[in-house]
Amino acid sequence: MSTAYKTVTDIAGPLMMVEGIEGVTYDELCEIELTDGTKRLGKVLDARSDLAVVQLFEEAKGATTEGTKVRFLGRTFEIGVSEDILGRIFSGGGKPIDGGPEIVPEKKLDINGAPINPYSREYPDDFIQTGISTIDVLNTLVRGQKLPLFSGAGLPHNQIAAQLARQMRVLTPEEVEKGEMIDGNRQSTVDNRQETSDQGPGTSDEKFAVIFAAMGVTYEEAQFFQNELEKTGALSRAVLFINTADNPVVERIATPRLALTVAEYLAYEKDYHVTVLLTDLTNYCEALREVSAARKEVPGRRGYPGYLYTDLATMYERAGRVRGKAGSITQIPILSMPEDDITHPIPDLTGYITEGQIYIDRGLHQKGIYPPIIPMGSLSRLKAKAQGEGKTRGDHSGMDAQLTASYARGVEIRELAVILGESSLNDTDKAFLKFADRFENEFIRQGATENRSIYESLNIGWDLLSEIPREELKRVKDEYIEKYLPKK
């Protein structure tokens, strides 16, 4: 039986100071027994020669310095895992909240985990089809990548995340071979999409799982994720960790680590291809700042702790592919930028750690365009390895560059026309202006349940490029222009 200490000297927010301790270590779990007999869980944030700073995973209401007992358990925060965890919903602290039984664990794992050793990493190069044209063609997602969504308050990042969870899949070699044979006839790609879109995430010979970690969300958002997965039958291969806004702030810090630990177990021990969606990282960082302030730490930029970069990296770097393991973890963190400020510490530091970002644009959203993912500001740093013959199609890389450049030029001309009037534009400028309008309405805009194949998206792009004089198509090879550009 471990020693119960009655030497609590101070309580500050979610933190508790315990003196006269012996043999206590950093991150060790402890059990706090209040004067009324109720028990709460905490962990050691700081341990010195005779003092421990304990962080409660639940609110400190009812805790007093007199009569409160603290018992250190000699282990870290662990979660029990087995394949039975699929299809279950848990609180942000790892307790089942779906009315089902407790998980009978195959093993227990420390939720803190560790970043993947760079030497053990395999370079991500498998194309993931999301069914969203602006991602598949222009900001290609790669299996094992960490690619965040940069959003803002009121933008549809949760809807996009749910669509990704429903539609993400890796093409079979047979589909790639068939897709490479498709010419500029758009009808053939529509038929191809119909044949492939019903298969759902993954491919027929793969095990696929989705892990949702919701931090500080509203009850309506939590229900939205659950309903979206249930109505498509995807809940059976998903695990949800829900920390709502009224749950303890400190629990928010553990939620993403619980999700990533389950993902690592499924990916590296059970050979699943796992997609982890973390929403909203801004709420997580706010919780980190609140705990840091309670500890009276010296604040960094905008009051966030100086170790924010390191803390985020310990989570982001747990995504990837490991040499010798069949499974993988693809991570899609979602963060709402305060005041749409991309220089805010959270998106700024995230951009340094992750392999690009998907930028959700408020201007497109105000036009009623869904999904409002804009090419300018979005970037997938690993996309080159997942584009081209054997992965998608030979014209993919050139189309990526040509469509982005043409749209950027069209937007620039649109702004110029507002000042000078359309009468000041020459025929080439008018062609790019028409391209930009069609690009927004036919390429970017698509339904929330519309699942386009990569080949349909590419051929829509070629159809739009037919608006532009051929001599302006400088980023695609002539052989692909001859093969795919519709003949007028």
Molecular structure report:
This protein is an alpha/beta fold and 488 residues long. The chain is 34% helix and 20% strand. The protein contains 14 helices and 21 strands. The strands form 4 sheets. Strands 9, 11, 14, 15, 16, 17, 18, 19, 20 and 21 form a 10-stranded mixed beta sheet that branches. It has a 7-stranded antiparallel beta sheet with strand order 1-7-4-5-6-3-2, with no helix packed on it. Helix 2 (157-167) packs parallel to helix 5.
The gist of it:
With 488 residues, this protein is of the alpha/beta class.
Write the layout of secondary structure elements.
Elements: E1 4-5, E2 8-12, E3 15-19, E4 29-33, E5 39-47, E6 51-56, E7 69-72, E8 78-81, E9 89-91, E10 107-110, E11 121-122, E12 127-128, H1 133-136, E13 141-142, E14 149-151, H2 157-167, H3 173-180, H4 186-197, E15 208-217, H5 219-231, E16 238-244, H6 251-268, E17 273-279, H7 281-294, H8 308-316, E18 320-322, E19 328-336, H9 345-353, E20 356-359, H10 362-366, E21 379-380, H11 396-420, H12 427-444, H13 454-465, H14 478-484
Parallel strand pairs: 9-16, 14-19, 14-20, 15-16, 15-17, 17-19
Antiparallel strand pairs: 1-7, 2-3, 3-6, 4-5, 4-7, 5-6, 8-10, 11-18, 12-13, 18-19, 20-21
Helix content: 25-40%
* Continuous helix count: 14
Structural class: alpha/beta
How much of the sequence lies in strands comes to 15-25%
Mean pLDDT: 89
Which of globular, elongated, flat, extended, rod-shaped describes the shape?
Answer: elongated
Q: How far do the termini sit from each other?
A: 84 Å
Mind describing the biggest β-sheet? 10 strands, mixed
Number of strands: 21
Radius of gyration, taken over Cα atoms and rounded to an integer in Å: 25 Å
Residue windows where pLDDT falls under 50 for at least 5 positions: 185-204
